Queue: 4 jobs
Job 1
Amino acid sequence: MKNKQFIFGLLLNGLIAQSGSNQIVVEETMFMDAPYVGEITTTNIKYAADGLYREETQMEVGSFFIRMAMGGNQKYGSILDGKKELRTVYNLKEEEYAQENFEGIRNNDGAPTLKGMENSFGRGGGNSNQNNNDSEEDESDDNGGEDESNDNNEVNSGFERTISDNFEEIGGFKATKVTTKMMGNQGPVFIEEWFTTDTTLFKYVSDIKTELVVSYGGENQQSPRSFSEMMLTNQGHEFESIDGRMVKYKMERKDEDDDDGFKMLWQIKSAKKMPFNRSDFELPKDHKKVDKLD
């Protein structure tokens, strides 16, 4: 059965890329509510086609003071063009963009010299392979919150974990829910994660981005496929895992008094194959080119 799914995935990947006539568009959302920071909502859209990748994020901050400190709500992104060998970072709010060619990045040991705003807050949904690396710059440490397992004052006393026998539909995908409760002296951490084995569209997007980053000498790294598995592994626990890619997670931490603390919810809203649209990989003509973004 797994061999048939693998062969089907290879065939579908080929059909997606065929003649450059299609593109994949993936939309994700994330909500975070943290002490002293308040509520932050991000919407992330990824576009991938043959030799082209774009990622755009819109961030809305609930707290007036945090929002003002950040200069208001933000909308920003980056474009990788393998045909032109060009990397573009942009700020839609300021209507500005900056560019660098792949050759310049290669001469800088594969590290882009232009810094965008990609790493402001994390995103989930790592690859279905637990040890796979896959992101443009530095998302491996960018999980939208602290690594609970590395808290020096944390004393862990065990965990509870259940895997549902039923499927739920998340963003158009059949997914299996995994619930993990981790106990500690600073209060319990509740993690709910949903995984799908229908990973072909996500793999195509990941492969396109990887191909482009590697072409300028960069190294792709990706957020963990599962935050609960990462934390359990770091704490030396043995646990049951399931195959697939995460399409939704919810993480909540209670304090010692069982009051609400840190909350985070991320999920895939949609992932679709669409006819290729060149304008999805271009910026408006009236945007101003600058040397670098502020």
Note: Residues 23-289 form one domain.
Job 2
Amino acid sequence: MIRDYETADGVEMLARQGEVGPDTEKWCAEVTGFSVILDGKLVCCAGIIKQREGVGLAWALYPSDIGTYHIDPRITRDKLNELIEENGYWRVEATVRCDFPAGIDYLRWMGFKREGRMAKHEPDKTDSYLYAIAR
């Protein structure tokens, strides 16, 4: 089942990853998106953070075993495209760790194009790639 994202969904996903901090609830309350529920369990949530008029940053929270849930990837692609259209975005960016090939492949499959590399972008100082959909 797919439903609108709720603040508690983000808090739950971050808590499962051990990434709860002083700004967690505030961040989770400021983003919009959707959540995927399977067998009554929250398995992922994703959406777009508005950066400025027409430009957003795609985000996703999911467990490391997301592949075991066998979620049809078209679900997130289609929901992302809905959010882009509904909110009038002409550009949506996404970042992915350079050492995460599955994430890179997924962004490409969703229609994102690589625009560059960001040095020491991740909390552990790993580089990330910047991808974008520009319409």
Note: The longest strand covers residues 41-52.
Job 3
Amino acid sequence: MSIFQDSNNVYHLDWDSSPWKPYYNKLTSRYLEEDSGDDTTIKVWCAEEELEGKVFTLTCDTDTVDKLTSVSYPNPAGGPVFNETDDFLTDVVTAHDDRTVKWWYGPGVAMQFPDGTHATTAYTQSTVYTHTIAASDIGEKVYDGGIHCWMKLPHAAQDGGTSPATETDIYSKNIPMEYINSDDFLIVFNSYGHRPIKVSGTNIGLTIQFQYADVLNAETGQFVNATAPIWDDIDIGSTTTDVNTSHMAASLITSGGFDKRENVKSIRFYWYTEDTTGTEAIFHGGQFIRMSLYPVKR
């Protein structure tokens, strides 16, 4: 059940998602001072026990809007450095610690800015932080009746499958059937409130779709798409239309609304940005979304 099952490098194209867990680690947070650069404190969060001992290096810098410019960590300790250099723009009204939204820059690790941090004057130079995950950062296990995983946002528009190595389609691991069987269930998108960051473009959207198979432990190539998506081309950045103010969305999946559900032995879902008319607003790299499923007994 390792979050590094796909790859030790969570920023690599091979890493899509973590396995489903029947529990979560209670969120912990603390303030972190800079190693070098400007005297600007940030708030860091941890939500995964497997991250204990990991050392994340965060670099922030000034620009038109101050931003987190890169994240890196060695794995194993002393080994090659894995990094994500796609910019995360800071914002004076989002991802501050008086709000629920955060920047989940890894599967289970996040940052915020203290409330009152200015969007354009917090940094005058490259400023480096070292976030070492200690045993005290690992919260207690909470069994809330659901199952949970991490998924990466797509980093390119879907192109008909001609370039599978560009993170166009992001797949979850197979959903444990013992948790849903033929019951209805609630799916919660972005249950830890990541603030999505994207480049400019005329089309902004994410489509989320279930896939199913009539064999146990199905693999890629054995799944077929459900007839209709769960969410079709929604704007996960718009808190006035498709998601709430924490950029979350929820939907009740009923057995009657899931085609061929009675014969299903394997289920997973995937998401993608459709390549439609106009310029797609592509999500920046290294963004991680927590997904939660809760069975609803009939």
Note: Residues 93 and 261 are 43 Å apart (CA to CA).
Job 4
Amino acid sequence: MKKALVIHPRFTLYGGGEVVGLHVCKVLQELGYGVYLACDNFDPDEADRHLGLGEVMRRCTYLPILGEFKPFLSSRFLAYQRAIYTVRLLNSIRVPRDCDFVFSTQSVFFFKPDLFNFCVAYDLADFLYAYEITSQKRSLRRLYYYPLQRLYRRYASRASQKKNFFIPLSHAIEESMKTFNYPHSPTVFPPCDMSFRRLPKEKYAVNTSRLVPSKRLEDFIEVARRLPQYNFVIIGKMSETEAALFPDYKQRLTRSLPPNAKLVEALLMDHKEVVERAKVYLYPSIETGISVSLGQAMGAGCIPVTPSIGGGAEMLDASGLGYKYRTLEEAVDIVRLALESQAPNDRPEFISDNAQIFSANSFDNKIREIVSEKMAQILS
């Protein structure tokens, strides 16, 4: 039997990345590959409970890896501790001799140089980090980060030079791939779970995400503060690594909540009905990657509201749904209008039907085509 290794080190929060990882495993299994899964948390029952993909994980062969990152020095050395941990983690992954290729589904840095690698690209933060550190104006800061930049730049260079093929999950990332001259496929939207029900809508806004600064949840909370007549709900969690990287961040969010907003610290799948009944999904992040949670909410018929830049805006452009804002003032006005909207294009049925371009079936078909085509080229 043909064999493939899927590398997805952190398998704890069951967010969008984990959905991508298991769907890649599923496609490879359907193509006749035996799949090794390198991750920290191999629990098919848990994967079934949260994602409905437990059987996919159960059919994989588990490869244990280094445990989750835990800082051991002062926070001022956190960047170096993470870099050291990342190198150790990558080195801890032992590729079985019978593997035909590697499929990296979490970070583009998790590749094995002696094999052909498919690398899912959620964003290019690591690569940009490699080239932007020296732009810091303060000379001491630049000097402090110089060795770290050399390490990141080395990995970025190796990623482009080795037998790697990138799969961008948004058009913005695809354009960056062209700029960096990385071999890549056309954009593949990530798989969004379209099993969310279209329940009768209630006039409140929701957001589901990891509790990290890049999600810009402060903006969500500020919109809630300016619309006290409506309720707002955040559902999310932090991993141990994120808690170490952003100490007190969750507490700051909690302290800033107005009376009409609440933060539920939980996994989305334990509170699906909160999304299914929400009229608006407010997604304030400007990350370039496509959001699985936003796609799920659109599948449930929620009206999407996003900034005018980033992956959320790209999803709205692709689907022809929702509303975009440029400022917080615009966000407040748009959310108010969306919560009261009776427009035909804001009907849950219309939104859900048009969100199917982000479905898991669409993702699976495109990954199947990419793998089949590339492996045929390699073997020819």
Note: The longest strand covers residues 33-39.
